[in-house]
TrEMBL record:
The chain crosses the membrane at residues 32-55, 62-84. The lineage of its organism: Eukaryota, Viridiplantae, Streptophyta, Embryophyta, Tracheophyta. This is Uncharacterized protein. It comes from Lolium multiflorum. It comes from the Eukaryota. Pfam families: ATP-synt_Z.
Length: 105
């Protein structure tokens, strides 16, 4: 890069400075995030099942067990942290999508 040239600021930088319109143009839909978490969890479960069926008796390829557990547990931790952090408060103005996933009154 030549001296004196600047890159345009990232969407995160726009969000930090209060320009949410620029940052919102690159946001990911909640359904896409939920679908990716489901895929990651199913991938971890499939990896564990594959290891148990093919390699458990020989105690081979033991790296598959912790990797499968991490992939299986990550979506659970993400959902727990999202719901425990309070975005599902009925009085919040985060939109109907977050309130739709919340259970309770």
């Amino acid at each position: 890069m030549a001296a004196g040239t600047r890159l345009p600021p990232s969407p995160a930088a726009h969000a930090l400075h209060g320009d949410t319109a620029a940052a919102a143009t690159r946001s990911v839909p909640a359904s896409l995030v939920a679908a990716s978490l489901v895929v990651v969890g199913l991938g971890g479960g499939a990896l564990l099942v594959w290891w148990a069926a093919a390699f458990h008796r020989a105690n081979a390829r033991l790296w598959m067990v912790p990797v499968g557990l991490v992939l299986l547990g990550t979506p659970l931790v993400v959902w727990l942290s999202v719901f425990a952090s309070g975005p599902c408060d009925r009085s919040s103005s985060l939109g109907w999508r977050l309130r739709h996933f919340c259970r309770g009154s």
